[in-house]
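Input record, target 12 of the design panel.
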């Protein structure tokens, strides 16, 4: 549209030129008019910023980087891109305003980094794309690993609820056999940050995560998962949904010291046996160490995927830092470089990218409904619940928070009590409501922030695209129909729960009624458009 428009202008301008001035000056005037068109289109893009067109928002992002030319110490990366009427330079990520960047030994090598000028608008491709990120070398990055753990505010000792037979007290109560059925009172307590807390965090059955808890893992590997690692990278494929992506640009040092773990279910395992170098003996595909999860608790592959994504600290209790990468993404930057850039340099304990154009939960919910990500009734129920609790649309008043909607396909974090609590309560929201974790992220975050000073580094989506490359889900790649959950039943709208009714929700009492197991398994998401998140 823009391009043909500009060509028209160009043509009529050059016609006028010929008419009045003759051929001699045509070349120069043509150049001038082209410059003029470029300028006009540039301001047009800026003025249209409040529209919802993705490519326009993305170009704004690029324009700002060009105009501001800020050094990286100003965290140029974290401009908020949703609203044109505000001074962009006052906006930083929520991390930077609360905690100024750590004063690293005088000059950080990236201090002088600035974004290159954006390409002229006529040359821009539509849609979200990567932007430049200044990394240290892997060796330098490792040297910047903090000497001491990030101090967990208030919370120092986090333990997890264990119950052999989780009791579902009411029909329609959120939760599952795997995550338990926390009452609303339990939920409230899990946000009441104290020095010592015990919360629901999946794996409620069995003596340890992965051992008779559902999501069961072979004993030899379970033992390996107990070992200490400074850094791990993790991902998962359930329902042979994705193809394994081999990470690239990984330093020798990282290959040696950082294990890459890929969780798969049995179905995906047998697919790997047929189609890759995987065998029962080596349990590897390239860099990835394959971990098979047996008895996965949910029929919806995407719910199973939330277990390793949000509960890595339970599966790997002795790991300091983790990078989660959805399996549809290929890692193309060294993990040490990513950790240095997004955690250590900004003094953060958890980093996640924001959605490239939506930053309001209510808007996100509508988009999820329109894209048929989940049944409308369940989404409405969840959002109504949050609204009654006080969730409001995103506005500037929430600054320094720059977004309520994450692009959660990567999570970079240090495993400390407060981040572990955050991902536990986030998982509990996902288990209580829809599996759309971008709807519950802000609620989990803000309820913790009400009590303690802690923040999440929400960086730009274009920066995320710098270190992970999107590949298509297997079904798209192979032009196949996406696998469907085995049940076609739609999650019934949960009934509103009376508050404060059940006390002692973590008691290890109560009998499991026959047929109770698996009742909550029948959550189904309508297929289609799975590639979008
Ligand atoms: C990093 O943040 C923590 C708490 O959030 C604070 O105590 C510490 O002083 C900060 N460190 C630096 C170097 O800014
Ligand atoms: C942490 O809390 C648990 C459960 O309340 C308690 O048993 C344990 O002793 C505590 N650990 C420390 C180090 O305080
Ligand atoms: C590896 O990193 C370099 C720059 O650091 C980048 O140009 C290249 O595209 C990366 N390789 C792949 C396969 O993405
Ligand atoms: C793997 O190959 C075997 C034998 O060729 C076949 O029976 C089986 O269905 C295949 N499994 C998968 C998951 O493709
Ligand atoms: C769900 O809501 C969306 C947007 O509000 C609407 O487009 C769609 O038709 C609804 N789907 C059903 C099944 O009602």
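The sequence produced for target 12 reads:
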């Amino acid at each position: 549209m823009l391009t043909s428009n500009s060509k028209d202008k160009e043509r009529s301008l050059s016609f006028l030129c010929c008419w009045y001035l003759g051929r001699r000056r045509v070349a120069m005037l043509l150049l001038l008019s082209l410059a003029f068109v470029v300028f006009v289109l540039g301001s047009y893009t800026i003025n249209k910023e409040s529209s919802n067109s993705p490519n326009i928002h993305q170009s704004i992002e690029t324009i700002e980087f060009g105009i501001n030319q800020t050094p990286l110490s100003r965290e140029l990366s974290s401009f908020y891109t949703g609203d044109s009427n505000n001074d962009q330079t006052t906006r930083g990520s929520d991390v930077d305003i609360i905690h100024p960047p750590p004063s690293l030994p005088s000059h950080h090598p990236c201090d002088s980094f600035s974004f290159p000028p954006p390409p002229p608008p006529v040359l821009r491709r539509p849609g979200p794309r990567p932007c430049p990120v200044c990394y240290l070398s892997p060796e330098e990055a490792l040297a910047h690993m903090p000497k001491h753990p990030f101090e967990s505010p208030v919370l120092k000792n986090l333990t997890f609820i264990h119950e052999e037979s989780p009791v579902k007290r009411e029909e329609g109560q959120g939760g599952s056999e795997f995550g338990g059925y926390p009452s609303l009172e339990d939920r409230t307590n899990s946000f009441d940050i104290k020095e010592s807390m015990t919360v629901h965090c999946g794996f409620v059955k069995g003596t340890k995560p992965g051992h008779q808890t559902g999501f069961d893992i072979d004993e030899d590997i379970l033992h390996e998962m107990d070992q200490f690692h400074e850094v791990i990278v993790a991902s998962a494929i359930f329902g042979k949904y994705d193809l394994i992506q081999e990470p690239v640009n990984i330093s020798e040092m990282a290959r040696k010291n950082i294990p890459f773990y890929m969780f798969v279910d049995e179905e995906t395992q047998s697919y790997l046996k047929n189609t890759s170098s995987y065998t029962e003996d080596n349990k590897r595909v390239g860099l990835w160490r394959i971990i098979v999860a047996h008895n996965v608790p949910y029929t919806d592959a995407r719910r199973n995927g939330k277990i390793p994504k949000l509960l890595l600290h339970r599966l790997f209790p002795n790991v300091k830092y983790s990078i989660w990468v959805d399996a549809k993404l290929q890692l193309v930057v060294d993990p040490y470089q990513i950790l240095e850039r997004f955690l250590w340099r900004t003094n953060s304990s958890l980093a996640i990218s924001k959605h490239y154009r939506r930053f309001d939960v209510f808007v996100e919910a509508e988009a999820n409904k329109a894209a048929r990500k989940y049944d409308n009734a369940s989404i409405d129920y969840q959002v109504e619940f949050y609204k009654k609790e006080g969730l409001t649309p995103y506005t500037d008043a929430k600054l320094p928070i720059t977004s309520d909607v994450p692009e959660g396909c990567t999570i970079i974090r240090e495993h400390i009590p407060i981040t572990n609590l955050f991902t536990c309560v986030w998982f509990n929201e996902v288990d209580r409501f829809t599996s759309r974790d971008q709807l519950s992220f802000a609620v989990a975050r803000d309820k913790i922030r009400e009590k303690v000073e802690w923040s999440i580094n929400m960086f730009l989506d274009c920066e995320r695209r710098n270190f992970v490359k999107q590949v298509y889900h297997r079904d798209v790649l192979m032009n196949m129909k996406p696998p469907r959950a085995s049940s076609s039943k739609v999650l019934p709208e949960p009934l509103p729960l009376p508050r404060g009714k059940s006390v002692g929700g973590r008691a290890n009492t109560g009998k499991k009624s026959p047929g109770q197991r698996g009742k909550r398994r029948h959550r189904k998401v309508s297929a289609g458009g799975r590639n979008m998140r």
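The longest helix spans residues 26-47.
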